[in-house]
């Protein structure tokens, strides 16, 4: 039994994981070939997970930061990194990690590159809003959080 199944069974409600919601977000945007940027020491595990689920990482950058420093990278720095490391064969950018300011850079990166961007926090917000749609009703698009958050929830 998987951890999410155990949590769901114990809580009596649906449990979600960032990794699953990221996949759903990437699929919702029709992305397949990705540039992956993260503050991690290595992207090996993330690449393995993405590629095992049908995505291709065409380029990646791991900043090799200590966990306490992840949030020190500014939105402007994430934008600069994404623009510097974009690849023509990539149809989108994945900014991996929840302890960052990446979500604040999404709209700027999308405007500059003309490509969709998915960030871990954004994917969690989007996925939870979709699951709560029956309780929330129609939610207005949030363009400052990128193309993903402009999709019909």
Question: Regions with pLDDT < 50 over 5+ consecutive residues?
Answer: none
Classify the beta-strand content into a percent band.
Answer: 5-15%
> How would you classify the helix and strand content by structural class?
alpha/beta
How widely separated are the two ends? 30 Å
Could you state the order of secondary-structure elements as H and E? Answer: HHEHEHEHEHH
Helical content class:
40-55%
Give the tally of β-strands: 4
Major sheet attributes? 4 strands, parallel
Describe the structure.
This protein is 42% helix and 13% strand. With 153 residues, the protein is an alpha/beta fold. It has one domain (18-150): Rossmann fold. It has a four-stranded parallel β-sheet, sandwiched between helices. Helix 3 links the parallel strand 1 (33-38) and strand 2. Helix 2 crosses helix 6 (120-131) and helix 4 runs parallel beside helix 5 (106-113). The two termini are 30 Å apart.
How is the secondary structure organized here?
Blueprint (H helix, E strand, L loop, with lengths): L2 H9 L6 H11 L4 E6 L5 H9 L3 E7 L12 H11 L6 E4 L10 H8 L3 E3 H12 L1 H4 L17
Parallel strand pairs: 1-2, 1-3, 3-4
Helix pairs in contact: 2-6, 4-5
Salient structural properties:
153 residues; 4-stranded parallel beta sheet; globular; alpha/beta
């Amino acid at each position: 039994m998987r951890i999410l199944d155990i949590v769901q069974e114990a809580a009596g409600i649906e449990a979600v994981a960032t990794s699953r919601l990221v996949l759903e977000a990437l699929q919702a945007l029709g992305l397949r070939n990705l540039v992956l940027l993260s503050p991690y020491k290595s992207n090996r595990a993330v690449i393995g997970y993405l590629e095992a689920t049908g995505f291709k990482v065409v380029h990646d950058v791991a900043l090799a930061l200590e966990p306490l420093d992840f949030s020190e990278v500014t939105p402007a720095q994430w934008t600069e990194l994404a623009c510097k490391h974009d690849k023509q064969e990539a149809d989108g950018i994945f900014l991996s990690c929840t302890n960052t300011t990446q979500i604040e850079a999404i709209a700027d990166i999308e405007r500059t590159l003309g490509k969709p961007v998915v960030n871990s926090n954004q994917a969690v917000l989007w996925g939870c809003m979709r699951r709560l749609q029956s309780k929330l009703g129609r939610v207005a698009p949030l363009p400052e959080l990128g193309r993903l958050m402009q999709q019909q929830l």
